[in-house]
User: What shape does this take?
Amino acid sequence: MKLDTVALDAARSSLEQGAMTPHYGPWRYEIIKMLNDSLATELVCVLRYKRHHFTADGLASAHIAEEFLVHAGEEAVHADRLAKRIVQLGGEPDFSPESLTRRSHAAYDDSRDLRQMIRSNLIAERVAIEAYSQLITLIGDKDSTTRRLLEDILADEQKHAEELRDWLAD
Assistant: This one.
């Protein structure tokens, strides 16, 4: 087994590309598109959780509304991390409000019923878990940095889903 000396020589040039070396190859643009779709998903989730935080009403709503706000903050951190990685890969993060819901894997929800809010958030978390699991498999060993980022986000989404499931069971 031997390292690719041509690729190592290429890494010594094109310094303006920063971390982008020949290793990233042609799939970089596909990864950027998938990350932008995930960015849209996270932003829609932030908006949904914020809406639910401000409109939750009922006996158990105060505690759950505060947790919705916590989840919104965590989803915003995911969005920031994805946007940063897109830039690192030489792409541009797409924050366009016009296309967010079209590109998002998860749906926005404006229900007023607390139980329905929890249910729609659980559905969105489950969709995110499935999407991130598939992305991790698709990326494989093509981009270990992005794969680790997605694995971190996936762990958070799984935690959110478990919390929401427990609230539905109460």
